[in-house]
Amino acid sequence: MNASETILVVEDDGSIREFVVSVLESEGYAVSEAGSARHGMVQAGALKPSLLILDLGLPDLDGLDFLRDFRAWSAAPVLVLSARTQESQKVAALDAGADDYLTKPFGVPELLARVRALLRRGPAATGEGSPLIEFGEVRIDCAGRRVEKGGELLHLSQIEYRLLLALAGNPGRVLTHRQLLTQVWGGKAAENNQYLRVYVGHLRQKIEADPAKPRHILTEIGVGYRFLP
């Protein structure tokens, strides 16, 4: 146990959140909490937690979307708490970036064992990512889910925003069509490259100085896309 290790609990059910926070604090952990995705992302950006405990059934954003947004800038381990018991739902959470999955209801010993296991991975697993990503005239505030260009707010659809985060969160790395489709749309869209071409085109129109000669979102022909900041 280490009081310097901050755990963020994002759970909309007040009684469950209070229970989890109480258990963790009794073990000496520093704990912060949020009851919504919006508040949770602000807390995550400010605290850069050592561990995120996340409920998937949030009132203002699906937990999987929250997880994808968080994973775009943070490598901190994530423990999902959820009443969703189907294997496909667990797989979806793990594919979106979760490190472990605990089904409700759960007991105190199991919760603490999972927490200890994830925190044992050490500082290298928590990453030093920033919730602010800047390139050219563009500034992405991951905590506030805002994108600005030249100081002006850019209006992006949810898909455009998630695609931009997926790309900008992996600078210099080639992301395949399948990787991007799975991360942004989910497994069912993994073979539909047309989705990707259309939305990459939309993003280029909004963030590139010259969309016909992009400097940031580059095409790797036949493979995918590479983001250069």
UniProtKB/TrEMBL annotation:
> Where's DNA bound on this chain?
130-229
Location of 4-aspartylphosphate modifications: D55
For the keyword DNA-binding, the answer is yes
Is DNA-binding set as a keyword in this record? yes
Q: Which domain of life is it from?
A: Bacteria
Q: Name one GO cellular component term.
A: cytosol
Question: Which keywords fit this entry according to its UniProt record?
Answer: DNA-binding, Phosphoprotein
A single BP term in Gene Ontology = regulation of DNA-templated transcription
PANTHER family given in the database record: KDP OPERON TRANSCRIPTIONAL REGULATORY PROTEIN KDPE (PTHR48111:SF50), REGULATOR OF RPOS (PTHR48111)
Give the protein name, as stated in the record: Response regulator with CheY-like receiver domain and winged-helix DNA-binding domain
The source organism is Azospira oryzae (strain ATCC BAA-33 / DSM 13638 / PS)
